[in-house]
Amino acid sequence: xxxxxxxxxxxxxxxxxxxxxxAQKTGTLSVVPGFIKTAPDANIITPTGVAVxxxxxxxxxxxxxxxxxxxxxxxxxxxxxxxxxxxKPHGVRVDREGFIWVTDxxxxxxxxxxxxxxxxxxxxxxxxxxxxxxNRKTVMFFKPADIAFDPDGNIFVADGYGxxxxxKLDKNGNFIKAWGQKGPEPGNFDNPHNVIIDRxxxxxxxxxxxxxxxxxxLDGKLLDTWTHLGIPWGLAYGDDGMIYMSDGxxxxxxxxxxxxxxxxxxxxxxxxxxALRAVHGITTDSAGNIYVTxxxxxxxxxxxxx
Length: 306
What we know:
The protein is mainly beta.
């Protein structure tokens, strides 16, 4: 059956409109299918954290047999770290000196790891939750979720699942201050899940269950609150000065400027390559590529800008 051109034009216009709307909704990101090549004995299971070092090597925390994995910039498996040490790792970051930092929800500690794989510093008390050890006058954590660093080397811990606070320590691990407790009030948190610092020394906290990002100065003074972005799970600060956010409830990746304006939005729930399912951790490399972990798809995906 043939249709007159006059009849087809409105249909074609409708399809074009739909495609434009879909492209606007999903943003300008393309997945690199099968980028991460896991080792035969190191399947990735419910990955949470992802970080990239200056060489482009990628670090992934997960619940598999090897809980901290390293891959090269092409996605090839290199090695595992801290085998037999980590129990339930969550966040992973790499600092300016190349040290790898990992939080463990079950051990209630933050570990600083040298590139050689040796543990260089332990923050918190092994398998013991709390806020501070009164006998040793040292900081304790309750399921710490993430870490960030300022230009002076001070350490900021999103002490997230249990204590609902941010803890500031000096570069040697000495306690400086903490702020926040569980609640919806400004300056309080309900699962501070990720924390980053921009080049203007503004500290961003993914206040996950309060569905907002709170911005502080480095002394804990509240500067701003963003409530228009959905539910922030992961945060990253790119070399381009942009903020990258994952939303595992709505299966989105957002690119923001430092005023909170959405510059790019990618939404694609599902299981196929490029789709998202409980998207969790997020990071970028020096070329602006985006890496995300997906808790329910058991994978880490790499996205490039089209």
